[in-house]
């Protein structure tokens, strides 16, 4: 990603003229910015602020660890890779290690950063940091009080079937499945 200072030089850059806070929650905040467009006109941009998140592609005995949980915005149960938001001041790698053990009961002895990506750049600033590990040892699950999920290990064929059935439909897990397939085919990400 480019340095933010370099972005000011881009001809499409939108200068913020005013920011109005709309909502402040425990996970996100919402603001409306008035911006100056490249053609001199003004427009509004609704922006969701989020501290960022981590997700882990964890492979155990040629199976990927996933969690199944209810997702209220979709009104359905989803199968996803272990993931969670960054705590204030937390480094992404530490968060990935924490979330993996909390949600799956497995500890990573080593972990590799694969990519960081934006989830919805049209309205949200959230960045997800994706990690990989196949160096796992048994630990202990530590679910949050409001977290209800189960963990299972699935094969690549099962992951593909879950995608076809719509049980896997979130971007981070789709990316994880395709990255895992690439890894199995080529030996690298």
UniProtKB/TrEMBL annotation:
Record InterPro entries: Nudix_hydrolase, NUDIX_hydrolase-like_dom_sf, NUDIX_hydrolase_CS, NUDIX_hydrolase_dom
Cellular component annotations (GO), alphabetically ordered: cytosol
GO molecular function: pyrophosphatase activity
Keywords: Hydrolase
Transmembrane segments: none
Domain annotation Nudix hydrolase: ranges: 48-176
Required cofactor(s): Mg(2+)
GO biological process, one term: nucleoside phosphate metabolic process
Pfam families in the cross-refs: NUDIX
Family affiliation: Belongs to the Nudix hydrolase family.
Record's protein name: NUDIX hydrolase
Species annotation: Cohnella endophytica
């Amino acid at each position: 990603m480019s340095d933010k200072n370099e972005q000011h030089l881009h001809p499409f850059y939108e200068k913020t003229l005013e920011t109005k806070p709309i909502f402040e929650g425990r996970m996100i905040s919402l603001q409306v910015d008035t911006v100056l467009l490249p053609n001199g006109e003004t427009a509004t941009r609704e922006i969701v602020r989020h501290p960022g998140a981590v997700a882990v592609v964890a492979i155990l005995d040629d199976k990927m660890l996933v969690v199944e949980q209810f997702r209220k915005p979709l009104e359905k149960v989803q199968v996803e890779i272990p993931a969670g938001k960054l705590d204030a001041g937390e480094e992404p790698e530490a968060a990935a290690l924490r979330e993996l053990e909390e949600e799956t009961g497995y500890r990573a002895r080593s972990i590799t950063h694969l990519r960081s990506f934006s989830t919805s750049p049209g309205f949200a600033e959230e960045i997800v940091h994706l990690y990989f590990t196949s160096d796992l040892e048994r630990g202990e699950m530590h679910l949050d009080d409001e977290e209800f999920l189960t963990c299972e290990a699935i094969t690549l064929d099962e992951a593909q079937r879950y995608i076809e059935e719509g049980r896997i439909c979130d971007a981070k897990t789709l990316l994880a499945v395709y990255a895992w397939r690439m890894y199995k085919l080529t030996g690298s990400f």
